[in-house]
Amino acid sequence: MTEPLLNTLEIEPAGVARTCVIWMHGLGADAHDFEPIVPELNLPTTLGIRFVFPNAPIRPITINGGMRMRGWYDVLSLDLPRQEDAEGVGDSDRALTALLDREQQRGIPSDRIVLAGFSQGGAMALHTGLRYRARLAGILALSCYIPLATRLNDERQPANQSTPILITHGDYDAVIPMHYGQQSADVLRTLGYAVEWHHYGMGHEVCGQEIREVAGWLQRVLKPD
């Protein structure tokens, strides 16, 4: 059965789209959350980047008293490694895989696509990117962690073993403490991934220095061959 495509907000380049950044929002936000970051990145028009911002499904979130909001998966407990919504992560993984496939059908090779996200969205970028069957240009994971980490070694795909990965985090993050991001970077390095790690004096948010470093990284991984 064909996976239904997520609803998306898309920003097309001035010319022909030659590359793509699929960027997932965090819990309770929506596709518009990172739309304002596009002009701030100030990326060269020659890269021909199509930005795709998908909306997560609306679902009840356990730690928020069952309140319904956009989320890539349920959050069952703040004790992240022990209680995770494997079914929700799996559903979102299939939906994001369908988006990656769709971009290739639109003419953008997989190795010209970056999978990016913030918080829950960043967790999904890591989950899906490391399991995707074709090589991606890069994986960008902001203020997040590896979900279902105990399954990673068995489920990861060799196609993205050498894919550049940028992981960033805030030193004072009270939502997802920084040690989760640092631990994720360390785990991936142990598995032989090319991880770049940065942290900043901020909370669960983004800052100017981070945006500038993300912009430089995107230029490096999406530059023409």
- Mean pLDDT, to the nearest integer, reads 95
Helix/strand/pairing category: alpha/beta
Characterize the largest beta sheet: strand count, sense, and whether it forms a barrel.
Answer: 7 strands, mixed
CATH H-level superfamily: Alpha/Beta hydrolase fold, catalytic domain
Q: Give the low-confidence spans.
A: none
User: What is the number of helical segments per DSSP (H or I, 4+ residues)?
Assistant: 6
| CATH architecture classification name | 3-Layer(aba) Sandwich
Rg over C-alpha atoms, rounded to the nearest angstrom: 16 Å
What coarse outline follows from CA principal-axis ratios? globular
Beta-strand level of the residues, as a percent range?
A: 15-25%
State the share of residues found in helices, binned by percent.
Answer: 25-40%
User: What is the fold named in CATH at topology level?
Assistant: Rossmann fold
Q: List the secondary-structure elements in sequence, H or E.
A: EEHEEEHEHEHEHEH
Number of strands: 9
In summary, what is this structure?
By secondary structure, the chain is an alpha/beta fold.
List keywords for this structure.
Rossmann fold; 31% helix; alpha/beta; two-stranded antiparallel sheet; 225 residues; globular; seven-stranded mixed beta sheet; 6 helices
Overview of the molecule:
- This protein is α/β, with parallel strands linked by helices and 225 residues long.
- The protein has one domain: 3-Layer(aba) Sandwich (Rossmann fold).
- It is built from 6 helices and 9 strands; from the N terminus they run E-E-H-E-E-E-H-E-H-E-H-E-H-E-H.
- The strands form 2 sheets. It has a 7-stranded mixed beta sheet with strand order 1-3-2-6-7-8-9, sandwiched between helices.
- The radius of gyration is 16 Å and the shape is globular.
- The model has no long low-confidence stretch (mean pLDDT 95).
